[in-house]
Structure formats: C-alpha cells, structure tokens
Amino acid sequence: MGSVGETEKVPTTIDRVRLDAFQLVTMSALPGALAALARLNIFEALAKAGDDAQLTAAELAERALPGKSINMSYLSRLLRMVSGKNILREVVTTTGDKNGAPVAVERRYALEPIARFLVDDPERGSFVHLLLTYQSPGAFLQTWEHLHESVLDDAIQPFARAHGMNAWEFGKHNPQFDKVFNKAMAGNSKIYMRAILDAYHGFEDVKVVVDVGGGFAAALSLITARYPHIKGINFDQPHVIDVCPELPGVEHVSGNMFESVPSGGDAIFMKYILHDWDDESCLKILKNCYQALPAHGKVIAVDNMLPEIIDFEGGDPMALQVDIHMLAFNDSGARERTERELVKLGLAAGFNKVKVVCKVDLLAVTEFHKA
Length: 371
Description:
Elements: H1 16-26, H2 29-39, H3 42-48, E1 55-56, H4 57-64, H5 72-83, E2 88-96, E3 102-111, H6 128-134, H7 147-152, H8 158-163, H9 167-173, H10 175-199, E4 208-212, H11 218-226, E5 231-236, H12 238-241, E6 250-254, E7 267-271, H13 279-292, E8 298-306, H14 316-329, E9 337-338, H15 339-348, E10 353-360, E11 363-369
Parallel strand pairs: 4-5, 4-7, 5-6, 7-8, 8-9
Antiparallel strand pairs: 1-3, 2-3, 8-11, 10-11
Helix pairs in contact: 2-5, 3-4, 6-10, 9-10, 10-11
InterPro entries: COMT-like, COMT_C, COMT_dimerisation, SAM-dependent_MTases_sf, WH-like_DNA-bd_sf, WH_DNA-bd_sf
Domain O-methyltransferase C-terminal: 144-352
GO molecular function: O-methyltransferase activity; protein dimerization activity
C-alpha cells in the first residue's frame, strides 16, 4: 500500500492542445499574480537581496513588507504560480526521517532573467509600471468587457464606453493614473531605446533631433547620452512639458503636433506616436514634420510593425497582441501598421523615400526621407 510522500511516478496522459486551450481561458491569473507580487514589493526585495539570492516566502515577506501581517499561505501560492511560468525559480529542499521518508519541504525563490524586467529601475527601465497600468482596476481592466461591442458598432470605443471619456482625457482627470502611465511609458522606452540604439546607427550624422511626443524625454535623454554632439528638442503637450525635468543639452517645447512641429532639427524622432492615430491624423503629423525639416532632413519613427504574413519565430504575434491594446484603449483610430501601410502614408505626406532600416523584437525603425 502506498503512502503520502512516496515518489512513485503516477501514470499521466497529456493532451497538449487540450491543456493549451485550458491555459488560454485561465491565463488572467498570470498578470493578476504578477501585479500582486509587484504591489507587494516581492521582485524589488529579491533584486535587492543580490544576484544569487534564494529566499523563502517568510524571508521575502520580512524584506518586502516589514512589520506587516502576512498570510504566508497566500503569498506562497502566488510565488509557486509564477515559478510555474519560469518567472521565479523555485528551489526545493526535502528533509527526511531516518528511513528516508520526507517529513519537511523548504521552498526558496530566486529571480529568473525575465523577472528582472519587473524590477523598478529608473536608470535602465522596467516593465513593472506597464504591468500595473494594464492591471489597474479603475482604468484598463474594465475596458475588455466592452471590446466585443466595438465590433458590433464601430461608434463604440471600449475605453470610452467604460469610463465616459477617452484615455487621454482620463489621464488628465486622474493624476495618479497619469503618473503611473507616464512611468510605464518611460520604463518601456528606456528598455527598448537602448536596444534600438545598439541596432540603429542613423543618429550618427544628426546634429539636432526633435522628439515629437517625447513625454518626459526618456528616449531623447538616451539618444543625447549616446551621441553627445546632438542637441535635443523635446516637444509635447503643455501639461507634460510643465513637469519635465531639466536635462543637459535638451530644450523642452510645448505645442500641438497637429498644428505644427518645431523647426531647427535635421531629424525628427517619433516613438509610439503614429500608432496612436488614424491615417488622416497621421498624415497631418507627417506633413507638419515634412514642413519643419530642411531639404536633407528625415523622420525616424519607431512603432510596432504588423506582419503581412505571421512569422511565429519573431515578434509578429506580439505586434498583433499590442494592436488589440490599441483597439481597446484608444478612440483615435489607433492601430499598428504593416510596412506597406507606413510607406503609403509617408509618400502621401510628401516624403521621397520611406524604408524600414531595422527591427528590434516587434519594433521597427522606419526612416522617412524628404530628399
């Protein structure tokens, strides 16, 4: 007769398609658990403990939430769940009695490489604020229940349906949400801008770059740090520019990109701008960029690029996924585009040549040349 604790292998039948289908319908547990652990400072505590740290749930609770009353069973369940997704690493030690029967199990947890992107890092960037933005109960989570309505009636925009205003207006009326959202954009920008600057060398001959929709100048500060000879002009709406930090070599200018774009730059940089708008709005922006540039100038645009044919080995599935975020959260015709669609927009705006120079994950760096 068997007993609890014996390690005899139990016969198991697995249907991978059935299991994957079940995962699809239960996958909301993963971002929910990640957001919970982020709010509990678990990733921060593990990172601060050192690269090789392996901590028990109790040790993590003491470091992350000192003096707090903790339900250790609940915390342990969250830690095991994300370990099952290879986000944390579970290290198990079993002690036995004199006959070798297991009597105690100790579980320790360590950061896997992917989890380091969930540790807040003001210098290198992080995805943690983006996670918390998408998991915000008073903002984005309510949007999904209205997604199907937009298919049935294109006058319905899911975010506006949920909140009575679009996402941009919502941010203006909810300063705390706006703060987290801006941190999310800055954290994402810092991670990907470093990778883009490693892959793309089109800034080498640029003297002045205008960052249209530059936010807190996270991207621009990395460009000017990599290329100290470049002068930067950070261009955004007045309520954003008013709270921008002073940066060496960077001038902050407020305005409306649909009316005009600051001149004086031989390159205009736009990251995550064109995908926020419909084709008509993108044409207005690109035409204003064209007018602001000298004869030899260029626009450097970074956006997620949709495939004409899906490549499951690259970033294509992720680009398609982000495209649904644009559908759900924006009311301005926001969408990701294919290379063919970007070329069509650029030529219609007057540019002589449009080409994708390189890709980083799902992001494409596209140049719009005036001459």
